[in-house]
Amino acid sequence: MRPEPSPTWTPPPKNADEPEQPRQVRRIVRLFRPYRGRLALVGLLVAAASLVSVTTPFLLREILDTAIPEQRTGLLSLLALGMIAAAVMTSVFGVLQTLISTTVGQRVMHDLRTAVYARLQSMSLAFFTRTRTGEIQSRISNDIGGMQATVTSTATSLVSNLTSVIATVVAMLALDWRLTVVSLLLLPVFVWISRRVGRERKRIATDRQKQMAAMAATVTESLSVSGILLGRTMGRGDSLTRTFREESDRLVDLEVRSSMAGRWRMSVISVVMAAMPALIYWAAGLSQHVQGPEISLGTLVAFVSLQQGLFRPTVSLLTTGVQVQTSLALFQRIFEYLDLEIDITEPDQPVRLEKIRGELRFEHVEFGYAGQERPVLSGIDLDVPAGTSLAVVGETGSGKSTLSHLVPRLYDVTGGRVTLDGVDVRDLDFATLARAVGVVSQETYLFHASVADNLRFAKPEATDAELVEAARAAQIHDHIAALPEGYDTVVGERGHRFSGGEKQRLAIARTILRDPPVLVLDEATSALDTRTEQAVQEAIDALSADRTTLTIAHRLSTVRDADQIVVLDHGRIAERGTHGSLLAQDGLYTALVRKDARPTAATPVPGDMPELSTSAG
């Protein structure tokens, strides 16, 4: 097997010159910049709602101190209508600000999801060979989904509650500054407690998201079609269930810890804030007892009303601070993916080839995976004229597949260069390279969609007639036409409703639709039985006609007619020539042919399932 660069993916190093949290906050703020106009409108609505809401206690004071004692019915009615109007206006402003802020928050989440997905689409094959699929899915779904409440409501909540607190404190000062001082004595202690709770929840949230990612990876791997097949045939269903139960149990513990972190301390804040009216009444009564300045009943009731109004936004501000601390852990995981270094990039001024002949050259090519001392390929010099075929053979681990991956730039050479029509493939734009090179590998991937949709993935605008023509060339049309739903038949997860040979022929039909001038066949028939291989080989012969073909061969019977054959040994070219000339040398190639010709007992191939009958559901 081909060695991999690293067993697991690790996050990129952080910038040690800058504190992490302030830098992270600035990045989060930048996410909202495209929507600053809407956010400004939200700010105006919030400010208006806060100002309107604080007028109610003053209206109440006038009712209690003036309208009722003086029996002024007209003034009483006017003040009562004012209180109702304030409530209506506050509600209308609240609905509008919720609509706008939620829309902005969802757009920010959309931007994040799209940015992460686009970043991952730009990563090289090496990243995905060392990263679990479930981990990637968890970052996009769980981490970004976990930020939803924070992103959609935090900005509005901060502005709304902060404005309310400021407006309320100003109003309280206008009513009585002494009572205001009493009300705010414990506020610094509350802020300190909430910051400690926030840091604790952030740490737990990081562990929780990691555990959710691990559990998602387990689900993705074990509940796929291949995972179910492996688990059933190995009798490991109970073991997999036990592993999942253990991971789920760890997640339960983290969820409980996350919910309870600082709960008692925040409860103390709630109790103290709820008890503040009693303290206010006590302070007012004490002031009267020591013959201090008189506080009217209306002023006292209005002040307590304001103080109770201060309770909700203050607690909400403290809670929002805790939520922000928790969300920073999620943002950090998302930013790790956005900060991934893209090692295969398009040049600033890419070359676009209008007409591609298909001439391939490997010039002094060297390649090695990161972290490995010995290169996988060394000193590779090959010339493949347009329209000719090159077969690459060798023992497992000799570098055959790696060589084929250099042509479509799944990896980049670490030395030398690979050229297409005289242009280094690293200088070509991605669209030209994708149009020029078609790949058919041993591991065929089909989407859980219809046959037609899978074929049109190569050419979205393809007509039905083109689909049929490509399928005929790939020796698969008759089988598709015999199915109850024909080309509308859903292939199933990873194409498991079709046999290995049928999937290969569908992949070949898909490549025929693209009509690439260069074709890379990476052991496309090695997992098939002899009968199926013959049918697939006929499809490959039709596909390879008049194209430059690079074939990575396991079964040497499929490459005898190649224009040139190269034998790789430990990443170097050991022999080259035609089938006949290599046999005459009686070297490595001859040994491989003898080994390949050795009779072996027929064994079933896991990917080669029975043909899908016309009665299949």
Looking at this protein, list some descriptive labels.
617 residues, alpha/beta, six-stranded mixed beta sheet, four-stranded antiparallel beta sheet, 22 helices, 10 strands, 9% strand, elongated, disordered C terminus
Structure report:
It is a multi-pass membrane protein. Residues 360-595 form the ABC transporter domain. Residues 1-14 have a biased composition (Pro residues). By secondary structure, the chain is an alpha/beta fold. The chain has 22 helices and 10 strands. The strands form 2 sheets. It has a 6-stranded mixed β-sheet with strand order 6-7-8-3-9-10. A 4-stranded antiparallel β-sheet has the order 2-1-4-5, with no helix packed on it. Helix 19 (500-514) runs parallel beside helix 20 (530-544). It is elongated and about 120 Å long. The two termini are 37 Å apart. Residues 1-10, 13-18 and 600-617 have low confidence and may be disordered.
The count of helical stretches stands at 22
The whole-angstrom Rg is 35 Å
Strand percent estimate: 5-15%
Tally of strands: 10
**Spatial ordering of strands, largest sheet:** 6-7-8-3-9-10
Q: Alpha-carbon distance between the termini?
A: 37 Å
Q: Largest sheet, if any?
A: 6 strands, mixed
Question: What spatial form do the alpha-carbon principal axes imply?
Answer: elongated
Note poorly predicted spans: 1-10, 13-18, 600-617
Average pLDDT, all residues: 77
**Which bin fits the share of residues in helices?**
55-70%
Subcellular location: Cell inner membrane
Keywords: ATP-binding, Cell inner membrane, Cell membrane, Membrane, Nucleotide-binding, Transmembrane, Transmembrane helix, Transport
InterPro entries: AAA+_ATPase, ABC1_TM_dom, ABC1_TM_sf, ABC_transporter-like_ATP-bd, ABC_transporter-like_CS, P-loop_NTPase, Type_1_exporter
Region (Disordered): 1-22
